[in-house]
Amino acid sequence: MAYYTRCAYLFDKDFECSVGIDGEVFIKGVTTTGEKTVCKNSQVFKMQTQNLCPPGHFSISFQLPGPVKCQEVTLSFETDGILEAIVQKKLP
Fold first, then answer.
1. Largest CA-CA distance found in the chain, in angstroms, rounded
2. CATH ID of 2-89, from 2.60.40.790, 1.10.1130.10, 3.30.950.10, 3.40.50.620
3. Closest alpha carbon to 88 in 71, 77, 61, 76
4. Domain spans of the chain, in order of start
5. Which residues make Cβ contacts (< 8 Å) with residue 3, sequence separation at least 6?
6. pTM of the model
7. How does pLDDT run along the chain (92 residues), one tens digit per residue?
8. What are the phi and psi torsion angles at 42 (to 5°)?
9. How far apart are CA 19 and CA 66, in angstroms?
10. In this structure, is the dihedral angle defined by the CA atoms of residues 61, 30, 32 and 5, taken in order, positive or negative?
11. Distance CA 59, CA 63 (A)
12. Is residue 41 packed enough to be buried (19+ CB in 10 Å), middle (13-18) or exposed (0-12)?
């Protein structure tokens, strides 16, 4: 039995994800979203965005419904900007 969660991510580098035995998932990293100009693959893009966090360090956490086996975590970073996590439940 496992918990399965997906979340959109905005980080580009220095990413860390940890899961505590109590089921708390903690994500931190550095994002460049929110910048006015983005350079990628020798191209320059002028960004027109709203409601994005400013560039820099960020962190977020959320609670899974119950205790987990924090050593048994599978993380997958999809190319569409989705972080998938499978965390094994700790059974009584």
1. 54
2. 2.60.40.790
3. 71
4. 2-89
5. 23, 64, 65, 68, 85, 86, 87, 89
6. 0.69
7. 999 988 877 666 677 888 999 999 998 888 766 556 667 777 777 666 555 667 788 888 999 998 999 889 998 877 767 788 899 999 88
8. 65, 20
9. 12
10. negative
11. 14
12. exposed
Strand partners, 27: 17, 60
Structure tokens at 70: 């924090």
The CA angle 82-83-86, to the nearest 5 degrees, is 135
